[in-house]
């Protein structure tokens, strides 16, 4: 990470888990364990996430004709490809000083039906916006933009204010009822309440990207995985029969050091340039949106995401692993993790996953946190391209050990693992969002305040 980004870095854990209340030390496995959910009293005292999950941070604005609102969003996530849908969740229950009701903002969003999601480059403007949000209480969200002192203009497709300093803007509207590719109804309602939060589903209609970035004179740099150094061996022996599968079909590449645009990424195909921003309008009709070509079906522009290592058991006891970029935390109490798993048959890239059936049948999944490490990255590339349907020994061939006596397959090489119970699934068009309540968190004993997991939630922008 560049020195400049150091000030935005997030380190976990904040305190040692060794003597922490509710955490158990399991000596022989060299792990810390805690059962979930926590009590409301515990959350009221400290409502920071009890386990680490890498989430990006950005800003969102909305306007209802009389007022404008500004909020910070932790863990914005693209949850569906066709239509292209963004999920944002906001707290609707009073849990703590940190997790309180965002009613002024969400009322405005529900009245106006649209938002502008924005990314500001690290530095003064981002700091001033963050400080406005931290200083001005939520009921006065209308005054936050003025307090930040930043200049704005209107979004192109709605009235939400857009910061002149934003380098990337996603304009989106609450989804409308429609049908998926099998003719089943989707989006009968534009939001759902899960635990302490309301998840809004917003269809992206316009993307603005700073012209110098769109033209390749500047780049967005995003480190999509955290950094961490294991202090004891990464894992035990991986025993495996036979060779890994060679698949000559479509391969999804993966690097946690993402630079956009660059030779490996999609080019941003703008319709025109306005206010120094290259602008792309997305087709409004679902039939015009679908790109069958595997490459063209990629996301049309950069959007920061990380990955969950989603594990599940097959009915005959085979472990599976599916790296899942569309994974985020949507509720604080109970803590809820939502991987979005492809179910529609679009092309090789978007096809029904073996994990889909396994998670449905067992009603459980695990979510491990990957980090930058050669063994883990190789495993992500293998498991992210080969289905268990083709390779029943997929996880071993990916090079990862599995601990088998658990709720969900645990990959001991990963620093943090969440066991989740599926309480609901939501069909979104191409992807199914599993609503997974965290039942238990497992952390390796070598994750300590002296040897923390390091994460930066903001992409950087550099000129070339
Ligand atoms: C970094 C990365 C992120 C991915 N994100 C998703 C995702 O969000 N949703 C999805 O359905 N597939 C995603 N995939 C693809 C699946 O991991 C891949 O199709 C996998 O082989 C499915 O395994 P299965 O059929 O055994 O379940 C991703 C792959 C990689 C490498």
Properties at a glance:
binds flavin mononucleotide; 9 helices; globular; 464 residues; 10-stranded antiparallel β-sheet; 14% helix
What does this structure look like?
It is a single chain. This protein is an alpha+beta fold and 464 residues long. The protein contains nine helices and 28 strands. It has helices at 40-45, 103-112, 124-135, 144-148, 211-214, 286-289, 354-362, 374-383, 394-397, and strands at residues 10-12, 24-26, 31-35, 57-63, 68-74, 77-80, 85-91, 114-119, 152-154, 161-163, 168-174, 178-179, 185-186, 191-194, 197-210, 218-223, 257-260, 272-274, 277-281, 308-313, 319-324, 327-331, 336-342, 364-368, 416-427, 431-444, 453-455, 460-463. The strands form six sheets. Strands 4, 5, 6, 7, 8, 11, 14, 15, 18 and 19 form a ten-stranded antiparallel beta sheet that branches. Strands 2, 3, 20, 21, 22, 23, 24, 25 and 26 form a nine-stranded antiparallel beta sheet that branches. The chain has a three-stranded antiparallel beta sheet with strand order 17-16-28. Strand 14 and strand 15 (197-210) form a beta hairpin. The two termini are 17 Å apart. The relative contact order is 0.19. The mean pLDDT is 93. Bound molecules: flavin mononucleotide. Residues 252, 254, 307, 320, 322-326, 340-342, 353-355, 380, 384-389 line the site of flavin mononucleotide.
Give a brief description.
The protein is α+β, with helices and mostly antiparallel strands and 464 residues long. The chain is 14% helix and 34% strand.
């Amino acid at each position: 990470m560049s020195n400049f980004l150091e000030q935005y870095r997030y380190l976990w854990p904040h305190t040692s888990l060794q003597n922490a209340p509710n955490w158990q030390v399991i000596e022989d496995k060299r792990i810390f364990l805690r059962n979930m959910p926590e009590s409301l009293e515990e959350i009221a005292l400290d409502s920071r996430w009890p386990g680490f999950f890498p989430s990006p941070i950005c800003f969102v604005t909305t306007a209802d004709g009389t007022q404008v609102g500004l909020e910070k969003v932790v863990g914005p996530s693209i949850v569906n490809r066709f239509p292209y849908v963004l999920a944002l969740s906001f707290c609707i229950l009073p849990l703590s000083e940190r997790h309180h009701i965002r009613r002024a903002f969400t009322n405005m969003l529900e009245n106006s039906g649209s938002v502008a999601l924005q990314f500001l480059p690290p530095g003064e403007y981002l700091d001033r916006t963050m400080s406005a949000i931290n200083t001005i209480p939520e009921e006065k969200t209308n005054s936050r933009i003025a307090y930040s002192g930043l200049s704005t203009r209107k979004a192109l497709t709605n009235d939400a204010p857009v910061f002149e300093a934003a380098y990337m803007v996603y304009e989106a509207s609450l989804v409308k009822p429609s049908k998926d590719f099998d003719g089943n109804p989707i989006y009968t309602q534009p939001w759902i309440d899960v635990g302490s939060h309301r998840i809004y589903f917003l269809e992206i209609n316009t993307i603005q990207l700073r012209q110098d970035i769109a033209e390749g004179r500047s780049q967005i740099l995003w480190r999509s995985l955290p950094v961490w150094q294991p202090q004891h061996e990464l894992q035990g022996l991986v025993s495996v029969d036979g060779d890994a599968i060679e698949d000559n079909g479509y391969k999804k590449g993966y690097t946690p050091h993402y630079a956009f645009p660059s030779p490996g990424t999609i080019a941003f195909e703008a319709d025109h340039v306005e206010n120094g921003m290259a602008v792309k309008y997305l087709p409004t009709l679902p039939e015009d949106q679908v790109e069958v070509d595997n490459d063209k079906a990629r996301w049309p522009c950069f959007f920061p995401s990380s990955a969950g290592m989603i594990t599940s058991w097959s009915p005959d006891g085979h472990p599976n692993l599916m790296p899942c970029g569309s994974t985020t935390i949507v509720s604080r109490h109970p803590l809820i993790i939502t991987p979005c798993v492809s179910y529609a048959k679009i092309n090789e890239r978007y096809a029904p996953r073996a994990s889909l059936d396994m998670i449905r049948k067992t009603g459980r999944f695990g979510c491990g946190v990957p980090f930058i490490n050669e063994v883990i990255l190789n495993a992500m590339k293998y498991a992210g391209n080969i289905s268990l349907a083709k390779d029943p020994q997929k996880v071993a061939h990916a090079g990862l050990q599995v601990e088998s006596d658990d709720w969900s397959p645990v990959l001991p090489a990963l620093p943090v693992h969440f066991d989740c119970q599926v309480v609901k699934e939501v069909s979104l068009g191409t992807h199914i969002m599993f609503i997974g309540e965290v039942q238990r968190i497992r952390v390796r004993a070598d994750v300590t305040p002296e040897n923390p997991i390091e994460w930066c939630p903001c992409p950087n922008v550099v000129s070339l």
